[in-house]
Amino acid sequence: xxxxxxxxxxxxxxxxxxxxxxxxxxxxxxxxxxxxxxxxxxxxxxxxxxxxxxxxxxxxxxxxxxxxxxxxxxxxxxxxxxxxxxxxxxxxxxxxxxxxxxxxxxxxxxxxxxxxxxxxxxxxxxxxxxxxxxxxxxxxxxxxxxxxxxxxxxxxxxxxxxxxxxxxxxxxxxxxxxxxxxxxxxxxxxxxxxxxxxxxxxxxxxxxxxxxxxxxxxxxxxxxxxxxxxxxxxxxxxxxxxxxxxxxxxxxxxxxxxxxxxxxxxxxxxxxxxxxxxxxxxxxxxxxxxxxxxxxxxxxxxxxxxxxxxxxxxxxxxxxxxxxxxxxxxxxxxxxxxxxxxxxxxxxxxxxxxxxxxxxxxxxxxxxxxxxxxxxxxxxxxxxxxxxxxxxxxxxxxxxxxxxxxxxxxxxxxx
Length: 415
Prior knowledge:
By secondary structure, this protein is an alpha/beta fold. The protein has helices at 20-29, 64-69, 72-87, 111-122, 140-149, 164-177, 194-202, 235-240, 269-282, 300-314, 327-330, 337-351, 406-414, and strands spanning 5-13, 35-36, 49-50, 100-105, 155-158, 183-190, 226-234, 247-256, 291-293, 323-324, 353-354, 377-378, 383-390, 394-401. The relative contact order is 0.18.
C-alpha cells in the first residue's frame, strides 16, 4: 500500500526574501528581485543584472570564521535548512536520525568560491585560502546539512541543473515509499557564479531588460540564486509527532526529451509526457488540477514548448487553469529553482493565493493561456503542479495537494 507523504517544514533564501514569510509576501505583491550584480565583476558582459540575494545577515547565522569557510551556496542551504528544520518542529519532537535522510539538487554549487581561489592565485594575491576549494564538490551542501543535523539515513545529490532540486524531491519521496526513511530533507541550493553567467550570456539567453515569461517581448531569462528546502515526511510519522502539515506531496513525473543539449522539443511532447506521468503517479486527473507553477524561463522557445505541452494535456480547459511564472520575480535559480518553486507551490495551496507572472504586458499568440498577469489572484487550490525543465531535456513535474486527514477522506469516500 502506498504511503502518504506530507510537507512538514520549509525554508527559503531568495532575491525577494530570506525567510518563508518574507518570500511569500514578496511573491504575492509581485516584487521584482532583479538588480545589479555585486558578487563578481559583470562589466565584461552585455547584461549586468541578476536576482541576487541581499540582506542576509550572516552574523545572525554563522560565526565569522565559519562564514568564511562556507561557500555562498552552502550558506544559503544551511540558512534555509535551519528554517525548515525549525518549522518542522524537530527540535521539540526529535526524529530517529538513522531513519532520516538528506537529498538535495545542485547546479553550480560552490563554484563562486573556486573562481575566487583561482583568480587570486593567478593574479598573485598572496596565498589563497584552501578553504575556498572545500565546496568544489556539488554534494558539499548536502553533506554540511547532514553533519549539522546528525542525520545518518540515505544521502545523495542530484545534478541536472535546472531540474535538479525537483528531481531530488522525487527521490526523497521514493525513499519514504521504499521504507528507507521516515523523513527526508530535500530541495536545493545554488549561487551566482561567473562560469554559469558567462555560459548563459554566450548563448544569448539573458534578457538585459528583465525576466518576462510568456510575453511577446521576452528575450531570455534572468539568473537567480538562493535555496528552497522542504522536509517530506511519512504521514503516520508526522501525526505521531503532532507536526504541522502544510500540504501533501502526491507524486511526480520524470522523463527526457532526448532531443537537443540546450533546446527543448518544440512541440511540447516531453512536457506533455512528464505532466501526464506525474498526474498518473499521483492518481490525479487533469480536471482536478487548479493551478500550474510554470517553468517559465522567458526564453523564446521554452515558453512556447511549455504552453504547447500544457495544451496537449489539458485541452480546451488549458485556458481556464491559472499559471504562475515566479521566475519573473526570483529569477532562474538553476539548481535550486525546483526547490524554491516547490515551496511557492505549497504556499499557494496553503494560502489560497496564486502568485502573478510580472512584466506580462504584450500577449504572444503562441503563448495564449492564463499566466496570472501582474497581480496575484485568490483561489481555493486543492491540487497544484510545478514544472521544471533542464538542458538536455531533463523534465520533472511535481504534484502537490491540500492535506486531507484520513478521517476526512473516509467521510468523502462515503459520500
